[in-house]
Give the backbone structure.
Amino acid sequence: MSPRSARLARLSRSVTFSACHRLHSKSLSDQENLKLFGKCNNPNGHGHNYKGRRWLPISCVLPLQIDPVSGMVMNLTDLKEYMQKAIMEPLDHKNLDEDVPYFSEVVSTTENVAVFIWDNLQRLLPQGMLHKVEVHETEQNVVVYKGEERTVK
């Protein structure tokens, strides 16, 4: 390996947060909500221990190179602080529907939790660094969000 070779790496860090929510859309009637969301529409809500993982990319427009001096893609202490601000502070031990303003108008599905985390991390991380957010609602239910958007017609 030449000392001038650029090596690329993917960095991942996981956090776990606990939160409760109720799946309920203001656009639907109570009966429609119950039919769509079942027991997750319980008026008193229900809880999860969400496991969140966010990734820094192997490559994107600007590939993330392992710094030849530090040997790191990013300082893990910085990453931990970003995740604390973007995920733990706004979400941990909260009622998503009552305590997090974003979810007052957005149904608190795991998909929308992933979008919320993505948006928060995007504001903190250097441009182009975030590759994906992965949120595990349960062992069986996982959402991966990569910032994709589609124009609604």
